[in-house]
């Protein structure tokens, strides 16, 4: 379980979630996003292309990070969710709260 | 040996003991049909063992006849959420307490019991996390997800044990 932070070709911060986003590592993701936010970033993408599982704590962390970003005039977008993970967002209606792209490229296209 | 300052509390026996599954197959075919296979697991009150516990149980339940997708997704999510709830809200992260999991596999259904040592809660008081005014709350989606992903959910009277039923196709 780990997170990778990179900048895409347009300078947008992309945080990749490798493995799972769960109660045991959600604080680490929060830290990465808050570091980027404190560093002046206002557009952050969380990439789930290599993620197998997100639990309800992970969903909650994304919700609170999204709120924090919006309060600072920014936006947190998501991409790369597999079918099961997308189902979790749909069941909890969180798909209405986020811009979710099939791929990172698609999610940042209109960023 | 020096203990790192970042880890102040020593591990309890419960945390040190490996997870051990107990699988009981009933002796006669008639009993097996009626009562099925029972799998029990004692899970220490530690969030970092949830993944391993879910893995172990899901693997055995897959062998018990759930479709691969139901075992991989519905059962895993429901189990992980029930265990996390039991550890965080039930046992309040007290390493002296344990969570008991008992799975009964019969030809028609899979019944998963998860019991903690806490005081219990009233599930009727848990608000719907998909209400517009609750959508941006950080917590409170675990039980909702369980209800969405299994066929039936029951609690004991005290509210410290959940029973989740997945019917087999």
Write the layout of secondary structure elements.
The complex is a heterodimer of chains A (111) and B (169).
Chain A: E1 2-7, E2 13-21, H1 26-38, E3 43-47, E4 51-54, H2 56-71, E5 75-79, H3 83-91, E6 100-101, H4 104-108
Parallel strand pairs in A: 2-3, 2-4, 3-5, 5-6
Antiparallel strand pairs in A: 1-2
Helix pairs in contact in A: 1-2
Chain B: H1 13-16, E1 21-25, H2 29-35, E2 37-44, H3 50-63, H4 68-90, E3 98-105, E4 109-115, H5 142-149, E5 152-155, E6 161-167
Helix pairs in contact in B: 3-4, 4-5
Describe the structure.
The complex is a heterodimer of chains A (111) and B (169). The mean pLDDT of chain A is 94. Chain A has one domain: STAS domain (Transcription Regulator spoIIAA). In chain A, strands 1, 2, 3, 4, 5 and 6 form a six-stranded mixed beta sheet that branches. Chain A is globular. Helix content of chain A is 39%, strand content 28%. Chain A has 111 residues and is an alpha/beta fold. In chain A, helix 1 links the parallel strand 2 and strand 3 (43-47). By secondary structure, chain B is of the alpha+beta class. Chain B has a single domain (18-167), classed as Histidine kinase-like ATPase, C-terminal domain (Heat Shock Protein 90). Helices cover 33% and strands 23% of the residues of chain B. Chain B has helices at 13-16, 29-35, 50-63, 68-90, 142-149; strands spanning 21-25, 37-44, 98-105, 109-115, 152-155, 161-167. A six-stranded antiparallel beta sheet of chain B has the order 1-2-3-4-6-5, with helices on one face. In chain B, a hairpin with a 3-residue loop joins strand 3 (98-105) and strand 4 (109-115). In chain B, helix 3 runs antiparallel to helix 4 (68-90) and helix 4 packs antiparallel against helix 5 (142-149). Chain B is globular. Chain B starts with 12 loop residues before the first helix and ends with a strand. Mean pLDDT of chain B is 85; it is low at 1-16. Chains A and B meet through helix 2 and helix 3 of A and helix 4 and helix 5 of B.
